[in-house]
Amino acid sequence: MQLNVCLQLSRLLRLCLGGCCLTAAVAHAQPMLRCEVTYAGTTHVIQATPTTDPYAVEPVDIAERFLFKVVLSTTGKQLDHALIYVYLQQTPRPVLLQQAKYFGPFKSSKQAYLLTGEQHVYGGPIERELIYQCWLSGIKP
Question: How far is CA 127 from the centre of its chain?
């Protein structure tokens, strides 16, 4: 019971701190997606900005168990779409577990807002759990 309360407080603190950091990040001129990816009690912060070559975006290794990749594409100065890929690392090649697609138009906001909600992705023979949530900022009217 105590461990569960500690985990909830930890998650709440991360959300509050993430929100403070994101408010400062909104000042950037271009869209940005900031994701908090948690596996086995360790949280990785992954930030993505628009790219002209989505195939050049490298996935981020998460504890040699998962790969997490975010691609933002723009048309002109507007964010066109955000793509999020989660792979399970295994031999002989990674296996796609989830592909999430978010298409514009995206709402403009002075503050970052939660785009994905909290996602839980499971994979592997013992169903390892990856948890992530992403905030979108820098969207202008």
Answer: 20
Per-residue exposure over 48-70, b if at least 16 CB sit within 10 Å of its own CB, e if not: bebeeeeeeeebeebeebbbbbb
DSSP code of 124? T
Rounded to whole angstroms, the Cα distance separating 92 from 103 reads: 32
**What pLDDT score does 52 carry?**
86
Closest to 26 measured CA to CA, from 108, 82, 128: 108
Top pLDDT among 81 and 8 is at 81
Mean pLDDT of 98-120: 95
User: For residue 33, is pLDDT > 50?
Assistant: yes
CA distance 31 to 23: 13
Q: Are 134 and 35 in contact (CB under 8 A)?
A: yes
